[in-house]
Amino acid sequence: MQFGIFSIGDIATDPTTGSTPSEKARIKAMVAIAQATEELGFDVFATGEHHNVPFVPSSPTTLLGYIAAKTQKILLSTSTTLITTNDPVKIAEDYAMLQHLADGRVDLMMGRGNTGPVYPWFGKDIRDGLQLAIENYALLRRLWREDVVNWEGRFRTKLQHFTSTPRPLDGVPPFVWHGSIRTPEIAEQAAFYGDGFFANNIFWPSSHTKRLVTLYRQRFEHHGHGSADQAIVGLGGQTFIRKNSQDAIREFRPFFDNSDIYGRGPSLEETMAQTPLSVGSPQQVIDRTMRFREDFGDYQRQLFNVDGLGLPAAMALEQVELLGEHVIPVLRREFDNKRPSHVPEAPTHASLKLKSLAMSEVTAEAAE
Questions:
Q1: What does the angle CA 197 – CA 184 – CA 342 come to, to the nearest 5 degrees?
Q2: Torsion angle of alpha carbons 196, 186, 112, 266, nearest 10°?
Q3: What is the C-alpha separation between 217 and 269, in angstroms, rounded?
Q4: How far apart are CA 284 and CA 174, in angstroms?
Q5: Which of the four, 9, 71, 108, 247, has the lowest number of CB atoms within 10 Å?
Q6: d(CA 178, CA 84)
Q7: What global pTM score does this model have?
Q8: Is the Cβ–Cβ distance between 75 and 105 less than 8 Å?
Q9: Bond into 174 cis (ω within 30)
Q10: Cβ neighbours of residue 158 under 8 Å, at least 6 residues apart?
């Protein structure tokens, strides 16, 4: 089981002080969170990709490359990479480059993006969003797996005898998760290729997310990648922790109430009851996260969001520390104890490399 932190890189005003961080301060805070994530024993740090204010991470590979140079072990990922408005050729080359620099500590999550104006800024039409996701990803897979690609599609110029460089490290493309909160076709896309499916279920009741995860599992089995319970599932969540629940509620409430995401809707208590938002003591966060396993089955990756909403950087780092010291060790032990032996871990560069070598040996033996 992989545990990690993901940030969407939003800039917001701290409602308790009226202070708003600069873009530089917010970017540096994300780097500090990533370093703390490694120091405290997490497995993954992931950054969002946005091209509109109030967000800062418009260049995930630049950010992750810098973090790669300052860390040694932690997996670096995205939450998400825009497969709709980015050129798949550029994605293939950027993430292969990052994969080499980070010694294989790279995977990425594809997403369509939910900000309409971004599409025309990059010459795309949001009405083509789903078809862009399908066509661009099909090309991306070929660019990583075929040394020479000839391509003709609907959304980009033709490719003739094209080779993307650098080639993937060890000939093994980065593992891909497909992130979605509401689109069955994306669950089907993940299942078709045998990739991971990530349901960022922050805003939705478990009944909604369960339908998508169940569809993905059923289609994963249908396409012959293994049994439904062996499908590679990731989940998102948001937490705010204090040693006792009263302090957690009291401190988090002003950030929640003034948030552009949560505020002016259902109350904090109603949102906690209806969605996976966990605000409370370490044990309450443990209990809430273990409930995900009951709702969605054994899964492979859990990412938490602990920053943004105007929380000061020091407070976000405290959340990483509380999670790392009091929550993740318990969750790791509990999930590992309960997971059946036939349910796999999330693929990594090392495991995919071993699988590729084994397949090469089988092919060679068959040819003899």
A1: 35
A2: -90
A3: 32
A4: 35
A5: 247
A6: 12
A7: 0.96
A8: yes
A9: no
A10: 150, 151, 152
Distance of CA 248 to the CA centre of its chain: 26
| Residue 244, CA atoms < 13 Å, CB-side half-sphere | 2
Q: Which letter does DSSP use for residue 230 in this model?
A: G
Q: What residue has token string 């490719």?
A: 159
Size of the chain in residues: 368
Strand-pairing partners, residue 47, are 7, 78
β partners of residue 111: 82
d(CA 107, CA 90): 16
- Alpha helix segments (H runs only) across 223-312: 245-257, 268-274, 282-296
User: What does the pLDDT look like over 214-231, one tens digit per residue?
Assistant: 999 999 999 999 999 999
One-letter amino acid for residue 6 of the chain: F
> What DSSP character marks residue 345?
P
Burial (CB count <10 Å: 0-12, 13-18, 19+), residue 238? buried
Q: 349 with 18: CB under 8 angstroms?
A: no
CA–CA gap between residue 21 and residue 307 (Å, rounded)? 12
Residue 113 above 90 pLDDT?
no
Whether 197 and 233 have beta carbons less than 8 Å apart is answered as: yes
| Burial (CB count <10 Å: 0-12, 13-18, 19+), residue 360 | exposed
Q: Read off the pLDDT of residues 329-368 as tens digits, 9 standing for 90 and up.
A: 999 999 999 999 999 999 999 999 999 999 888 888 887 7
Which of these, 181, 53, 203, lies nearest to 117 by C-alpha position? 53
Spatial neighbors of 90 by CB under 8 A, at least 6 apart, are none
Cis peptide before 62 (omega within 30 of 0): no
Per-residue tokens: 180: 């979605």
Is the omega angle on the peptide bond into residue 57 within 30 degrees of 0, that is, cis? no
Q: Cα(38)–Cα(67) distance, rounded to whole angstroms?
A: 10
Cα–Cα distance measured from residue 363 to residue 368, given in angstroms and rounded to the nearest whole number: 9
Joined together, the tokens standing for residue 138 give 């099909």
Q: Judge whether 38 and 73 are in contact, CB under 8 Å.
A: yes
CA atoms within 13 A on the CB side of 74: 28
Q: Is the pLDDT of residue 82 over 90?
A: yes
